[in-house]
Amino acid sequence: MKLADVIAVLESAYPPKTAESWDAVGLVCGDPGEEVTRVLVCVDPTSSTVDEALEGGAQLLLAHHPLLLRGVNGVPADEPKGALVHRLIRGGAALYCAHTNADSALPGVSDALAQAIGLTVTGPLEAGEESGTGIGRIGELAAPEPLSAFAQRVADALPVTVQGVRAAGDPDRPIRRVAVCGGAGDSYLATAKRAGVDAYVTADLRHHPASEHIESGGPALVDVAHWASEWPWCEQAAEILRSAFGGRVDVLVSTRRTDPWTVGATSTAAGGLA
Prior knowledge:
Elements: H1 3-13, E1 26-29, E2 38-42, H2 47-55, E3 60-63, H3 80-90, E4 94-97, H4 100-104, H5 109-117, E5 120-127, E6 134-146, H6 147-157, E7 166-168, E8 174-184, H7 189-195, E9 199-203, H8 207-215, E10 220-224, H9 226-230, H10 232-245, E11 250-253
Parallel strand pairs: 2-3, 2-11, 3-4, 8-9, 9-10
Antiparallel strand pairs: 1-4, 5-6, 6-8, 7-10
Helix pairs in contact: 1-10, 5-10
C-alpha cells in the first residue's frame, strides 16, 4: 500500500478538521507515494519509539502526540526534534500524528480508555458536532464497587508507571457511573461534576483544582499517568488499519514505555500526620 492510502484511512477515522485550532496533526515527514508494509503505533514520537520503528522495519510511525506542536523555523539535525525527523527520513520512515482529532473521534482515545477499564460507554463527556463524538466519555460499570476497588481496577487495566494510580474521595464511595478523559483533563472537572458521575478518570490533575473539586462535592477523582491513559488508543488505531488493509500491512503497537518519569520513592520516615 502507498502511504497516501494509509493516510486516507487515518483521516477518515480521525478527521483533521476536528482537531483543535492550536493542534498540529497530520503528516510530519514522509512521501505519500512511498510503499508501506509495516506501521508502528505509539503515544509519543521519541528517540525510543523512532528506534523501535526503524529497528522493526516500519515505514510509518503513527503517533498520538505531535512532534512539532509549536511553530518552528527549521528542523536541524543537531537539535532533538530535528534529529528525529532526519533519522526517520534517512531510515525511510514517515511520521504521522493524530492528536485532538483522535481525542474527539468515535471511537477515539477516551473510548479506548473506557473499554480498558470495563465501562459501557453511554456518550461523550463534552459533545462534539457529530453524534457520539466529543471530548471524554461517560460510561457505566456492570455493578457498583467502592472507590478503592475501582482505583485498583484502573491500575490493573493500564500499563505500569512510576506514578501509578491515585484516587481522591471516600475510599468506600460506591462507583458505577464514570467519566473518563484520556490525557490532561483537569479543564473538564466542572463538566464531570455537572454530568453527575460517581468518579472521573483522567491524567495530570493538579493539587489546587483537585482539592477544590473534592471540597465542593464533586465526583471522586482517579488520576493516572498521561501516557498510560492514552496507551490503549494504540491498539484501537492499529485495529482500524488492520481492518482496512487486512494482511497487506503489518500493524504493530509499540512496547516502549515513554512515560517520562523513571524513578519513584515513598518516604520510610515516621510522619505522624493524620
